[in-house]
Amino acid sequence: MSVLTVEKLRVTFPIRGSLRRARFTAVEDASLTVDENEIVAVVGESGSGKTTVARCVVGLQRPDAGELRFEGSTIPARRPPELKQAIQMVFQDPRSSLNPRMRAGAIIEEAWLTHPSTAPPGPRSTAIAGALADVGLDPEVARRYPAQLSGGQCQRVSLARALTLSPRLLVCDEAVSALDVSVQAQVLRLLVELRATRRLSMLFISHDLGVVHQIADRVVVMRAGQIVEQGAADAVFSNPSHEYTRALLDAALELNDLSTLRNR
Ligand SMILES: Nc1ncnc2c1ncn2[C@@H]1O[C@H](COP(=O)(O)OP(=O)(O)O)[C@@H](O)[C@H]1O
Ligand SMILES: [Mg+2]
């Protein structure tokens, strides 16, 4: 069964300064699914509507039209707490998505305070250490502020925070784009590992086809708000059917040799 179904999604924004209240269509007629335990990547150049789709999925943006379903049921406009818990997001810039005035331990603990039903039994410090260990961090990281952590460590803390609520679907919006290539590879490996150990499904958004090639089962290609192609990652990468996908791949190939990046 699909964990996430997005059907005919449409999102428009008001055009600032326009006299006739004209609206700009950021996403038009976008449909995709994410199956259980599957990693689906959404790729496309900057401005193609990827983040807007992600924001709709996590409930930060209300669509103009279309339907979102989670595990077969329509997601209501007002999400019940269980649903908010089940769909978690990890953002691009780990530093700015973490509260700079909170220690890593408190950042993780906050999730349990917001959703008390998810709070684990036993001492809080043990639970925090466990959550940090799950993302490959030492317990002593709990005492540090975001500014005292590296980019990769910050992104792991973000991930730990998202995972504390035992989500079913993780939405990663350019989650490794701000990281160095070597750290990127570590975080990608961690995501693949977590997918297996936690039976997570992921909507993985990235403009970087090299990254997507390393992690995605399926690929959805967006251009100017529309999905132009989707399919199994291997098929899309080896035999793209849309010229835009081919152009994206050519651009990526100029930067990296994809075949050497593939390491699963
Ligand atoms: N809140 C907003 N108000 C107006 N326009 C927006 C807003 N959010 C996004 N857009 C526009 O929608 C388009 C898609 O943006 P986005 O989803 O962020 O693309 P991507 O993540 O693929 O770079 C862009 O042209 C962007 O400028
Ligand atoms: Mg974006």
Please provide a written account of the structure:
The protein has 264 residues and is α/β, with parallel strands linked by helices. The protein folds into two domains: 1-71 and 202-264, 3-Layer(aba) Sandwich (Rossmann fold), CATH 3.40.50.300; 76-167, P-loop containing nucleotide triphosphate hydrolases (Rossmann fold). It has eleven helices and ten strands. The strands form two sheets. A six-stranded mixed sheet has the order 6-7-8-3-9-10, with helices on both faces. Strands 2-1-4-5 form a four-stranded antiparallel sheet, covered by helices on one side. α4 packs parallel to α6 (151-163). The chain is globular and about 55 Å long. It starts with a strand and ends with a helix. The relative contact order is 0.17. The mean pLDDT is 91. Adenosine-5'-diphosphate binds at residues 13, 24, 26, 44, 46-52.
Poorly predicted sequence stretches spanning 5 or more consecutive residues: none
Query: Whole-number average pLDDT?
Result: 91
What would you call the quaternary organization?
A: single chain
Going by CATH, what is the homologous superfamily of the largest domain? P-loop containing nucleotide triphosphate hydrolases
> Which architecture of the largest domain per CATH?
3-Layer(aba) Sandwich
Task: Walk across the major sheet and give the strand order.
Answer: 6-7-8-3-9-10
> Which band does the percent of strand residues land in?
25-35%
Computed CA radius of gyration, to the nearest angstrom: 19 Å
Number of domains: 2
Major beta-sheet overview: 6 strands, mixed
Principal-axes geometry comes out as globular
Q: Ions, cofactors, ligands: which are bound? A: adenosine-5'-diphosphate, magnesium ion
Overall CATH class of the largest domain = Alpha Beta
CATH topology of the largest domain: Rossmann fold
Number of helices: 11
Order of helices and strands: EEEHEEHEHHHHEHEHEEHHH
